[in-house]
Amino acid sequence: MASHLVIVGGGPAGMMAGLLFARAGAPVTVLEKHGDFLRDFRGDTVHPSTLELFRELGLRDRLLERRHDKVSELTGRIAGQRLRIADFRRLPVESNFIALMPQWDFLDFVVREAERYPDFTLRMNAEAVGLSHDAAGRVNGVILASGERVPADYVIAADGRRSVLRDAAALPLEDLGAPVDVFWFRLPKAATLENQTMGVFEAGRLFVQIDRRDYWQCAYVFAKGQADAVRARGLPAFREEIARLLPELGAAAGELTDWDQVKLLSVALDRLTRWYRPGLLAIGDAAHAMSPVGGVGINLAIQDAVAAANLMARAMAEGGDVDAIAPRVQQRRLFPTRIIQRAQKMAHDRIIGALLDPEARLLRPPWVVRLLDRCGPLRGIPARLVGLGIRREHIRSPDAGRRV
Description:
12 helices; single chain; 22 strands; seven-stranded mixed beta sheet; 32% helix; globular
């Protein structure tokens, strides 16, 4: 008899895991604490690694029927010069671009595909607050805020960087430290056919503008713990700072009339040193919170879900013991997590932190970036690291579920 899997968290990692386990024939219930997916300022980048997974599932073309923009290059304005940094067209895959797609559209697509399997159930407004255990101490269910207990043969914690289940399971956490926080906000723009997403790097300032076709999704980066100080200077000063950094956004910045329009993202960089205990496995941000650097967090979380399904789904569908398999998931995914977090930590400490120093002087772009701009083949290296990552996964879980 198949084991019942309960997944806590309806984000990219949880929904991808739900789809793949149901596809393998394992009964799955996904618990999502919110009533819908319509929340702004979430990661919108679907990288080539993720697009290739959906191609392997035969779903990529349907996914790309959803409204999206294609980003083939990453560019940056550094010390007043616009430079090309990464070229995804050089990747050795069919999906050689980043798709910018609102995360609610992406999640809605995954849910609709998962619901084609009768063994898949999604419960909204189901906030998990704790775990239940059997007499031997093994996790055997999830406790909801309503007091209801949802029984489970196994639990996957995919409830994000502030994971309740990670804490409830007393999994050990290593904080790597992140020296920055981010204000996210929208500014209006005229719709254009060519996507103009880029980062702006100047001495003492770092700004990212993501082209969402008819508006800019903007990230203003500042030293950690300085949010109140930025707010205390007032909105007029904040608008003036944007206009000084990007004169072409000066008029649009006038649309910021209330701090409620500006959302604080407290950047975290951490990882569990053990992702599992009997009856439970943590994946995605619950296992390793990533920095926004490179926009890789969502795609790394999806890779975790694929690895978990590749290793565990058949055993779950057959009612086998998966506790012994969970360490293999961590072993498989810990190496790329460490490599990417090490690169992000280096970027924080040596580049971003240095740029945000009030005494910083940036008279010309670093030589490495100038070299990337001049040499097209070299731009394939950062494209591969950002677009495909380290030890990327392929779909190897069985396609054995009943489908309607």
